[in-house]
Design brief:
The complex is a heterotrimer of chains A (about 325), B (about 260) and C (about 550).
Chain A (H helix, E strand, L loop, with lengths): L1 E6 L1 E2 L2 E2 L1 H13 L1 E8 L5 H7 L4 E6 L8 H12 L6 E5 L2 H14 L3 E5 L1 E5 L2 E8 L4 E7 L4 E5 L14 E4 L12 E4 L15 E5 L9 H11 L2 E4 L1 H5 L20 E5 L5 H4 L7 E6 L12 E4 L2 H17 L1
Parallel strand pairs in A: 1-4, 1-6, 4-5, 5-12, 6-11, 7-11, 14-15, 14-16, 16-17, 17-18
Antiparallel strand pairs in A: 2-3, 8-9, 9-10
Chain B lengths: L1 E5 L2 E3 L7 E2 L4 E2 L5 E3 L1 H17 L3 E7 L4 H11 L3 E5 L9 H15 L3 E4 L11 H9 L3 E11 L2 E8 L2 E8 L2 E5 L11 H7 L4 E4 L12 H4 L2 E7 L8 E4 L4 H11 L4
Parallel strand pairs in B: 1-6, 1-8, 6-7, 7-13, 8-12, 9-12
Antiparallel strand pairs in B: 2-5, 3-4, 9-10, 10-11
Chain C lengths: L15 E2 L6 E8 L3 H15 L2 H6 L5 E4 L14 E2 L2 H7 L10 E4 L3 E6 L4 E4 L11 E3 L1 H14 L3 E3 L4 E7 L2 E7 L2 E3 L5 E6 L3 E9 L6 H9 L10 E10 L7 E6 L12 E8 L3 E9 L9 H8 L3 H7 L3 E11 L11 E2 L2 E3 L1 H4 L10 H20 L11 H8 L2 H8 L3 H4 L4 H13 L39 H7 L12 E2 L6 H10 L5 E4 L2 E4 L9 H4 L3 E2 L14
Parallel strand pairs in C: 1-10, 2-3, 2-14, 3-9, 6-16, 14-21
Antiparallel strand pairs in C: 4-8, 5-8, 6-7, 10-11, 11-14, 12-13, 15-18, 15-19, 16-17, 17-18, 20-21, 22-25, 23-24
Classes of the chains: A alpha/beta (about 325), B alpha/beta (about 260), C alpha+beta (about 550).
């Protein structure tokens, strides 16, 4: 099976999600990649190292800004004549718009939010969660090529150390695709990830005892490179801002690691974080509902455990 | 300025949603509501109309006939008209088919601005706006947390993983708003009472020039093959702190490659 | 110590307003889209069909129904086994019984006395015989009736609460609806939408149990009867089941205690809903004394009884809800159910026959009679605000089967204040003599006046296993509760109360609104499913913003 992987890049680096998808494609079949943008030196070689046999590059000032529509034109040129079984994207704000635009352009099926890809019986099969992760669906395609958006964080990049042939891609870009212009480009580095994007979240609940309890939570989050979240109860009580609230009436998050500290885990909270990769809970009440679904549940005093845990994490990361 | 807001009719009561095992799709046979995220788009449209002092806000939707009642909420908020494409042949449409039907309905309206909400809360139809923008051949700004309009152009602050971009596009254009953009107004009592009297049009596929085989399952390019239980979380471990909990946690995280 | 020692910070006059300029004018304004309010709207639609000039005179909106829930049905909950006579009368052939959204006629019924492990069949008390009656979900019936009301021309306004009564020159002129979009401290949020003053020629209050404006009206017009109203709290669930249930079941006894000092009056019901569902609920009088009594937890305990476990084995819980029922009956009825410009119907008036467990058909009949009284007054060209103009409603009600039934059983519920055994004997005597014996009228005591005791029974409440038994929070979630976290607190209670009172409320509330805190009680109003129990036991529920609260579908 021949795959084309859309590689995203930001400030001179290839994005981890794209590279992960590239690695998966290389494992499933023949993987080629496409790089669109401006001033892309060096990136093609990186693509090769992470699994691409060939990289198509369109380096054009008209593609300098991360806008989706010109990329649809470029991809149509590359893919429109056939030759690829599937075009894969690691989900992002940009790639989602590109993938959907391309689906309309080529009349090609797009499956999104995939958490796995496989070739079964010679056919490409995608797997995705539905209904708040309570059921998983196998999805397929009825078109060539098949378009897929893979959920962020699904595949880890595999550095295979290969090299890729570079082929220059040329494409005419349509007027309407160039009509939207970027007046200002995002460049601010926020203080740590927002909870929606974070890979690691440390969340605090009533067990913290008071707003001061969040100091330890913030320390641990910093040590892990993650974000801080809070339950409805503590936000109601004014211990932490609403923007950090996770749950039925707050945000829904699905980080790789969710550390719930002093949280009972009632369903109103659970529905906001149940699709997290790993759930670790610390609570002194052995009957807290959260222990029914935490991968690792620790019954103990968070005031003793948190500082030690933070120290150990720091030491480990420093090593 | 004529603004078309694309709104979706979604099953209500998230607590009792289920997948129909025979169709393997979300069971939409029960009651439904206006997708709450689309309320942000309706609100933004109303704000723009109020700012320019004139114009029209028309709600465009594709769904079953009973969707009309749910769309009335948008009318109660202040929208002027509803256009619903309701046709048996549309059921089971995926992104490709839905965008085709929606684009045809929108072309008929010739709006200056087409607005979408952040997502449908039924887990279907992500990034429909990009597909529609391509079919309409209009510029697109998505994930907009702030929108302004001036002199035949719109300017949107787009939320991305790296912060905010500011993007400008000439009208006609397609804009998808994020739920951070506004807090939708409650319909005023007068609005609720007046909603029923506002024009509500139901169109068939034929009315918008889309052949039946280009919609529904026939017009779709993706399939649902099987339903499975979620992968088990694996063994649940529960330990009591005997003084070494912190170490055990780190061990566990290291084993799972989480740290 | 008793709850009434700590009365809530509530003054009904806060919810009275002078009429001022009308923002919206309607002909007849009905508050509450339940069986009473919708029957009223349906009957008015029928009458106005035959009186087009009057319909014209009433303006663009001759009949409007305010409903505080997300849609009609969202706040409706009952057992229920419905006597179809009132609905048949209401539709007068336009719809047959088979058109009504019922789950089937009652074919068999059993009453059991429960002990912790056993169940003993006892003869069905005559007041409880359900032949010819139908099982229904009141929430579904409400939705269906709302559609009929709209077909008949009524305008239903969901997500709209009746906040204050507009009274001017001694007559009711309409209702001020509730604000939406206020923050926790009452501040106006970005999407603040003030309530509207809706003026009407006649206002009909059909708010159901613990009706907010009803309470305000009874106070303003001095309509309270000699006896206070008393309530019971019912908590119920709907289950998908593996094997059909062929009968209607009622139980007495365990887990309630018979001794007089506990005052635990009530029992459970199990009704089949078609072949693949059933509903099970427990109803307990709120005159109970044990501060550890939790109806929700007793229901969970009840489900572990062998009789019930067998019915529920292999099944799945699909709905949960809670609501109070007025139990004072005839003796607690207000002096009059009308005032200038005002009519009061249904559970809000207290029209419930406790021994028969029936209130829905009385609600429907009272709504129908209210419609006729309003229509007559309007057609005569009357000013419905004139004193006595609507007196025809009370007269009609007193000549109806509603009055007859309630009078007959008037002393039964109070008899159970003497304990299950003596109460049962007295009830038997009352039935046999159609209410003639014992003579006279009992006196009712307010629920909040009951002295508290503690019994340690909370230890025996089962832990939630997520399959057969469930905790309060996941139950609130299942009810579809959508009350904003940052909405103003709509519950009036004193906060600095002794531990026993805080504990009483914490156990009492099926939705975990109250929690024992350091110097009193903490209130998480966003959990509230507006059952009304707090109003019976020392607090006062007021309606939160429209659209908040549960979204019942099958209850």
């Amino acid at each position: 099976m021949k795959f084309l992987v859309f590689l995203e890049h930001h400030e001179g680096k290839l994005q981890k999600d794209s590279l992960g998808v590239l690695g998966k494609a290389a494992a499933l079949g023949e993987a080629e990649a496409v790089l669109l943008g401006s001033e892309l030196e060096g990136l093609a070689a990186d693509a090769g190292r992470f699994g691409a046999q060939r990289v198509y590059v369109m380096d054009d000032v008209l593609l300098a800004k991360p806008l989706p529509q010109p990329r649809v034109d470029a991809l149509e040129t590359l893919v429109g004549e056939g030759g690829f079984d599937a075009v894969l994207f690691g989900a992002s704000v940009l790639s989602a718009d590109v993938a959907a635009g391309l689906a309309a352009r080529l009349d090609a099926g797009l499956n999104y939010d995939l958490t796995d890809l496989a070739v079964e019986g010679g056919e490409l099969v995608g797997k995705r969660p539905a209904l708040g992760d309570s059921v998983y669906v196998d999805v397929g395609w009825r078109s060539e090529p098949r378009l897929a958006l893979v959920r962020s964080g699904t595949f880890e990049p595999q550095e295979s150390g290969g090299s890729a042939e570079v082929e220059k891609l040329e494409s005419r870009l349509q007027d309407f695709s160039l009509a939207a212009t970027m007046v200002e480009q995002a460049h601010e580095e926020s203080e740590g990830p927002s909870i929606e994007d974070a890979d690691v979240i440390v969340a605090g609940g009533r067990g913290l005892g008071g707003p001061e309890g969040f100091a330890a939570v913030e320390e641990l989050a910093k040590a892990l490179g993650g974000a801080v979240a809070a339950t409805r109860a503590v936000v109601d009580a004014g211990w932490y801002p609403y923007s950090a609230q996770v749950g039925q009436t707050g945000k829904t998050v699905s980080p790789k690691l969710y550390l719930a500290v002093g949280i009972s885990g009632a369903i109103q909270h659970k529905v906001g974080m149940q699709s997290s990769g790993l759930i670790v809970a610390i609570n002194k009440d052995p009957n807290a509902p959260i222990f029914e679904y935490a991968d690792l549940g620790v019954v103990g005093d968070l005031n003793e455990i948190l500082p030690k845990l933070t120290e150990l994490v720091r030491a480990r990361r420093a090593a | 300025m004529k603004i078309a807001v694309c709104a979706k009719y979604v099953p209500e009561a998230t607590a009792t949603r289920r997948i129909d095992p025979s169709t393997k799709r979300l069971d939409r046979s029960g009651e439904g509501v206006l997708n709450p995220f689309d309320a942000n788009a309706v609100e933004e449209a109303l704000k723009l109309k109020e700012a320019t002092g004139d114009g029209e806000v028309v709600i465009v939707s594709v769904g079953p006939e009973k969707a009309l009642e749910a769309m009335r909420r948008a009318l109660a908020m202040g929208a002027d008209r509803v256009v619903l494409v309701s046709d048996e042949a549309v059921a089971g449409s995926d992104l490709v088919a839905t965008s085709r039907v929606l684009a045809a309905a929108l072309e008929r309206e010739s709006a200056d601005l087409v607005l979408f909400g952040q997502q449908a809360n039924d887990g279907d139809g992500a990034v429909l706006w990009a597909a529609v923008a391509d079919r309409l051949q209009q510029p697109l700004i998505s994930q907009v947390a702030e929108l302004s309009h001036e002199d035949g152009k719109v300017r949107g602050k787009r939320q991305t993983e790296f912060g905010y971009d500011v993007i400008e596009a000439p009208l006609p254009a397609v804009v998808a708003v994020s739920d951070a953009i506004n807090v939708p107004r409650y319909p005023a009592l007068k609005g609720i009472m007046g909603a029923k009297k506002k024009p509500q049009e139901t169109l068939s596929l034929a009315d918008i020039g889309v052949p039946a085989e280009e919609a529904g399952e026939a017009g779709s390019r993706t399939t649902v093959e099987a339903l499975n239980d979620p992968p088990s979380r694996g063994d649940i471990q529960k330990i009591e702190d005997d003084g070494s909990a912190a170490e055990k946690i780190v061990e566990f995280l290291a084993e799972k490659k989480a740290v | 110590m008793k709850p009434s020692d700590y009365p809530p910070p509530f003054d009904p006059s806060e919810f009275l307003a002078a009429p001022g300029e009308a923002e919206i004018e309607v002909g007849v304004l009905i508050v509450g889209a339940g069986p009473a309010g919708l029957a009223c709207a349906i009957r008015l639609g029928q009458l106005l069909e035959g009186a087009p000039e009057l319909a014209d005179r009433l303006g663009d909106v001759p009949v409007a129904v305010l409903e505080k829930g997300r849609q009609p049905g969202s706040h409706l909950l009952s057992g229920a086994v419905v006597n179809p006579r009132s609905l048949r009368k209401l539709f007068d052939g336009r719809y047959q019984t088979r058109d009504l959204p019922f789950y089937g006629r009652v074919e068999h019924e059993s009453v059991y006395f429960l002990t912790p492990q056993r169940h003993l069949r006892i003869p069905t008390p005559p007041t409880m015989k359900n032949g010819g009656n139908y099982v229904a979900s009141l929430a579904q019936l409400g939705r269906w009736l709302a559609e009929r009301a709209e077909e008949g021309g009524a305008t239903i306004l969901p997500e709209t609460s009746g906040h204050a009564l507009l009274v001017g020159d001694g007559r009711v002129r309409g209702v001020r609806t509730g604000d939406r979009g206020r923050g926790r401290d009452g501040q106006e949020l970005g999407n603040f939408e003030p309530g509207s003053d809706v003026h009407a020629r006649v206002t009909v209050l059909a708010e159901g149990t613990q009706g907010h404006l009803t309470g305000v009206a009874l106070d303003r017009f001095g309509l309270q009867g000699d006896n206070p109203q008393v309530w019971a709290l019912g908590v119920k669930e709907v289950w998908k089941i593996a094997r059909p249930l062929d009968r209607v079941i009622h139980t007495l006894g365990w887990p309630l205690r018979a001794a007089k000092r506990y005052r635990e009056f009530g029992g459970s019901f199990v009704y089949p809903m078609g072949e693949d569902m059933l509903t099970v609920g427990l109803v307990v009088g709120l005159d109970y004394r044990d501060s550890e009594l939790s109806v929700h937890d007793l229901l969970q305990q009840l489900k572990m009884h062998p009789l019930l476990q067998e019915l529920l084995l292999g099944g799945e819980r699909v709905a949960w809800g809670a609501k109070t029922i007025p139990e004072g009956g005839f003796l607690s009825l207000p002096k009059r159910l009308h005032a200038p410009g005002l009519l009061i119907c249904g559970d809000g008036a207290g029209l419930v026959n406790v021994p028969a467990l029936k209130g829905i058909h009385y609600a429907v009949e009272s709504g129908r009679l209210a419609a006729e009284a309003a229509f007559s007054a309007l057609q005569r060209g009357e000013t419905p605000g004139r004193r006595g103009a609507l007196a025809g409603y009370d007269r009609a009600l007193q000549e109806s089967f509603v009055w007859r039934d309630l009078k007959q059983v008037r002393n039964m519920r109070p008899a159970f204040g003497r304990g299950l055994v003596l109460g049962g004997a007295l009830a038997g005597a009352m039935t046999a003599t159609r209410g003639a014996f014992p003579p006279g009228d009992a006196r009712m005591e307010a629920d909040a006046d009951q002295e508290l005791i503690r019994s340690d029974r909370a230890k025996s409440y089962p832990a939630a296993d997520g399959k057969l038994t469930f905790d309060k929070l996941s139950s609130v979630f299942l009810s579809g509760n959508a009350t904003r976290d940052d909405a103003p607190n709509h519950i009036r209670v004193q906060r600095e109360v002794p531990k026993e009172i805080a504990e009483l409320w914490t156990r009492m509330c099926p939705a975990a609104v109250y929690e024992v805190a350091e110097n009193g009680v903490e209130v998480t109003a966003s959990n509230c499913v507006q059952c009304g129990a707090i109003t019976a036991k020392g607090g006062r529920l007021t309606p939160p913003e429209g659209g908040a609260g549960p979204d019942y579908k099958l209850t």
